[in-house]
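Person: I have long wanted to understand how a fold can be written as tokens. Underneath my words sits a plain record pairing an amino acid chain with its backbone structure tokens. Those tokens are not coordinates but codes from a learned vocabulary of shapes. I should like you to check that the lines agree and flag anything odd. The protein I mean follows directly.
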Amino acid sequence: MSWILTAAKAICPLCECALQIERPASPPHWGLWRCPVCKKNRGWVPTPPEELHGWVMPMGRNKGLTLSTIAGRTSGVEYLRWCAENLKDTRLRKVIATYLQQLEAEAEKVSV
């Protein structure tokens, strides 16, 4: 069985439409970003979005803290943005970037 979840902030670079997460995906991936309009694959989703808030940072000055704990600290979101752009570990960068997209989507829902 497969299912699709629409991502609020993941946008296709070609047609600028919201990407969807398709499940199941081939291991070790959790899902696949796919554009519903141009039907192109846009990368792998490494971790389920609903589990990201409890994901534990494996390294650095915030080692052992959850992403939600880090984001709640002063300058925590800025630190996570830096990690998403600069860490060498590609999977970790993707997990953090996906978490930040989820945070932004939740903030937009609250502000509306």
Summary: The longest helix spans residues 90-111. Residues 88 and 94 are 11 Å apart (CA to CA).
